[in-house]
Amino acid sequence: MIRGVGLDAVEIARIAQVCARQPRFVERVLTPAERAYCLSRRANPVQHIAGRWCAKEAIAKAVGRPLRWQEVEILPDAHGKPVVHLHGVSAQVVAEGQLLVSITHTRTLAQAIALWVANR
Fold this sequence. Notes:
Blueprint: E1 2-11, H1 12-21, H2 25-29, H3 32-40, H4 45-63, E2 72-76, E3 82-86, H5 88-93, E4 97-105, E5 109-118
Antiparallel strand pairs: 1-5, 2-3, 4-5
C-alpha cells in the first residue's frame, strides 16, 4: 500500500549557482558516499548533485515531514538503480515502510519521484 508520494524538480543551473556561492552546500546536503559518487561523474557532477537534492526533497514530501539530509542516503545499486538508505531518526520515521525513488535529468533539469510503500 502506498503511504505517500513526493515529486520534485530543480533547474541544474540553480544548484550550480548554490554550489558556487556556498561551497559547503554539497557537504551539508550529501553524505560522503553520495559526494564521492556524484563527483566521480566527471561529465557533469552537478546533474547528479541536483538529482540527489530532488530525491531527498521528494522523499520528505512523500513522508510528510522534513528529514535530516545526512540521514538519507541515495546510492546506485549494481545496475545503477537509486536505492534509499536511511539512518538515525529518519530511519525511525519510515520504520514501517520502504522508500522507492526514481531520478532523471536532462541538460537543464533534474527531477525525482519518491514512493513511501507500507510493508504488509
